[in-house]
């Protein structure tokens, strides 16, 4: 309770009223599950001021209009239905695509050329080459851009292209970017480029939206080439960090109709951050070209989709539809309960479920929370491996060497409910075999974890685990 006195009494009553309004609003807009509602209610009743401050820091945000699906929800359903009628042999794949489309994923298409990357140097070589050849536009969305050699080269190319008349737009996450490249940002703006900070912490000082980070990593070049993956921009991502060593990640480069969908995602995020609509600029959306035969969908998740996040639906459907094997790589193994139980059910049903996690912690809470969930999953037949050849940052899911997911979404609550994410969903035997081979190759640098090893934790390590489980949702 507050200190005594008339002023404190007024403050206390005011905070009770504010907290009550917040809780009612959160419940009526379906932003809270019952368990979380009870916890927030207890905190706000016992310590109203502390409860309000905690909400401002880590509470669920309230977005205008409450819970609403993305504007493209259900787009392309007629085309999927037409394909289902014409190709009954692909019923499972197209049913998967229909589920994602209804959940809010972007249009499904079958005319894409896709290249998968598992090594940073290969990825950045192609990305920087494509950026350097840009003639009309560059759209980039990224979580982190360091201040080092690779980042300087990256920004120099953007500045050069802007000076040559290319429309350059880049969106950074305010938390991930910090102030690392402000000199280059100013130079880019002077050259004619546009830079936007997503969810500035200072601007959102009194809003929990500051906890919703833009974790997407994407690029669109001339409206013809798209990139989606888990790579930020910095020297560690091309294996030049002594701290992290070899950086294992994943991304895809693609051409075809899906590039237009990726540009649409960027345009939606740009409008969200700037209130400027660029979706009607024809130079950003040139006519799509048929470039290959890979079936593909883009999946974008965000906090406006709690309870029906397309990313959550994607992972659930991939796990459920894979009968023989499911291979997963994730730096954060803290699955929401629905994903956890589906992984357990798959393993207990005889499906070969294997998950690789890093042995190096990029956050101490994550490290022990990973192992807590690894133990629970192993108790139900899931096999968990610990990667030792540097740092495993890849967010890869592949089922039955056919259903493939590559992108920015981790297997944790933050990716499902707090962050803005972007995954590429691929339906391809060729890419499925390639991703499976990549996973199995990584197992050469892993040791299999066990419940016995987890049980050997010291008293201090057990305390670290318990402490980590309190805060892991907000990491």
Low-confidence stretches: 65-69
Per CATH, which architecture of the largest domain? 2-Layer Sandwich
* Anisotropy-based shape: globular
Query: What's the multimeric state?
Result: single chain
On the 0 to 100 scale, the average pLDDT is 88
Q: How far do the termini sit from each other?
A: 29 Å
- Provide the helix percentage: 40-55%
Q: How much of the residues is beta strand, in percent? A: 15-25%
Would you tell me the structural class of the helices and strands? alpha/beta
The figure for the number of domains is 3
Q: Let me know the CATH homologous superfamily of the largest domain.
A: Endonuclease Chain A
- Beta-strand segment tally: 18
Give a short synopsis of this structure.
The chain is an alpha/beta fold and 475 residues long. The protein has 17 helices and 18 strands. The chain has a 16-stranded mixed β-sheet that branches. A two-stranded parallel sheet has the order 10-16.
Task: Provide the descriptors you would attach to this structure in a database record.
single chain, 475 residues, Endonuclease, Chain A, 3 domains, 16-stranded mixed β-sheet, globular
């Amino acid at each position: 309770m507050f200190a005594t006195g008339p002023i404190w009494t007024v403050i206390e009553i005011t905070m009770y009223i504010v907290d009550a309004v917040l809780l009612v609003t959160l419940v009526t807009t379906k932003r809270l599950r019952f368990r979380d509602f009870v916890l927030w209610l207890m905190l706000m009743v016992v310590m109203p001021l502390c409860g309000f401050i905690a909400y401002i820091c880590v509470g669920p945000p309230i977005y205008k209009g409450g819970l609403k699906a993305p504007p493209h929800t259900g787009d392309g359903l007629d085309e999927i239905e037409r394909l289902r009628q014409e190709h009954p042999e692909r019923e499972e794949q197209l049913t998967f695509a229909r589920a994602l489309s209804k959940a809010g994923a972007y249009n499904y298409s079958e005319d894409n050329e896709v290249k998968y990357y598992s090594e940073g140097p290969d990825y950045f070589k192609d990305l920087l080459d494509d950026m350097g050849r840009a003639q009309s536009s560059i759209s980039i969305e990224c979580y982190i851009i360091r201040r080092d050699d690779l980042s300087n080269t990256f920004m120099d190319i953007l500045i050069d292209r802007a000076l040559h008349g290319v429309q350059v737009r880049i969106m950074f996450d305010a938390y991930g970017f910090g102030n690392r490249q402000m000199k280059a940002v100013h130079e880019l703006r002077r050259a004619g480029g546009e830079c936007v900070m997503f969810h500035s912490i200072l601007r959102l000082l009194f809003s929990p939206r500051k906890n919703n980070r833009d974790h997407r990593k994407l690029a669109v070049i001339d409206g013809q080439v798209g990139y989606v993956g888990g790579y930020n921009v910095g020297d560690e991502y091309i294996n030049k960090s002594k701290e992290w060593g070899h950086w294992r990640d994943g991304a895809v480069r693609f051409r075809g109709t899906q590039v237009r969908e990726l540009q649409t995602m960027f345009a939606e995020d740009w409008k969200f951050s700037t209130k400027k609509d660029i979706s009607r600029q024809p130079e950003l959306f040139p006519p799509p070209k048929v470039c290959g035969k890979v079936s593909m969908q883009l999946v974008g998740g965000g906090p406006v989709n709690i309870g029906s996040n397309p990313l959550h639906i994607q992972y659930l459907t991939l796990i459920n539809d894979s009968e023989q094997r499911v291979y997963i790589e994730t730096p954060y193994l803290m699955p929401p309960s629905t994903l956890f139980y589906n992984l357990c059910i798959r393993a207990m049903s005889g499906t070969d479920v294997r998950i690789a996690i890093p042995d190096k912690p990029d956050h101490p809470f994550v490290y022990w929370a990973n192992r807590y969930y690894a133990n629970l999953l192993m108790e139900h037949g899931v096999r968990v491996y610990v990667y030792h050849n540097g740092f495993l940052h890849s967010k890869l899911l592949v089922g039955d060497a056919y259903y493939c997911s590559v992108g920015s979404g981790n297997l944790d609550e933050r990716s499902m409910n707090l962050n803005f994410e972007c995954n590429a969903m691929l339906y391809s035997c060729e890419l499925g075999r390639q991703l499976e081979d990549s996973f199995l190759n990584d197992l050469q640098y892993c040791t299999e974890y066990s419940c016995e090893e987890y049980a050997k934790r010291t008293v201090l390590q057990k305390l670290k685990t318990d402490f980590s489980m309190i805060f892991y949702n907000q990491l």
